[in-house]
Design goal:
The chain is mainly alpha-helical. It contains 5 helices and 3 strands. The chain has helices at 2-35, 45-53, 64-99, 127-140, 150-167; strands at residues 103-104, 172-179, 184-191. A 3-stranded mixed beta sheet has the order 1-2-3.
């Protein structure tokens, strides 16, 4: 019987140490998922946190050493869970900010030299960057870039974006183009 309890304690110790490694790996999985949600699996960290916080040592094999290992694991996961929540909140804030950003078109004379990133995905520009693009385009055409002030531009672009966002289909995206008639940048919908 004593040998059996000793083996169960060794097994429990190994399980607790494996969970410590899993907690450390979870941090990497969360970061990978937040960086690339389309290609990385959801880390299921909430289930992991609950499982660890609800763990108990079998009273038949419990000793001070195993209880200390479990306490350390639970504290580690408790502190990591706060860091993970902060990571998640920060990533969500970035996503919300980016959802208000627009993608410039690759044509119509816009500066597309920076359009593609190294991994061939489109960059997302803020309204500030779109303002700069319009200013540069007007200067290149010999037009007065001050014909429309920045506040009016931002208001016009945001209003147009809201209108197009509610109408566009899933296979379409909102892009900025230069309207030669009005001599200013505008937004349009195009197929991806």
């Amino acid at each position: 019987m004593a040998v059996d309890v000793a083996q169960q304690r060794r097994d429990e110790e190994a399980r607790l140490r494996a969970l410590v490694r899993e907690a450390e790996e979870m941090d990497a999985r969360i970061r990978a998922y937040l960086a690339d949600r389309d290609n990385k699996p959801h880390p299921r960290h909430q289930e992991f946190i609950e499982r660890i916080q609800n763990m108990r040592i079998d009273p038949n094999i419990s000793n001070r050493y195993l209880e200390t290992l479990l306490d350390n694991l639970q504290w580690k996961v408790y502190h990591l869970s706060h860091a993970w929540r902060q990571l998640w909140d920060n990533a969500e804030a970035v996503r919300k900010r980016q959802s208000g950003h627009l993608r410039p078109a690759e044509k119509n004379g816009l500066d597309d030299s920076q359009e593609r990133t190294d991994n061939n995905k489109r960059r997302i520009y803020s309204v500030d960057r779109l303002w700069e693009i319009q200013q540069k385009k007007l200067e290149n055409l010999g037009q007065n870039p001050d014909a429309e002030n920045r506040e009016a531009f931002v208001q016009r672009i945001k209003q147009r974006y809201g209108q197009l966002a509610s109408e566009k289909k899933p296979d379409e995206e909102i892009v900025m183009t230069f309207d030669k008639q009005s001599r200013r940048c505008t937004l349009a919908v195009k197929k991806r």
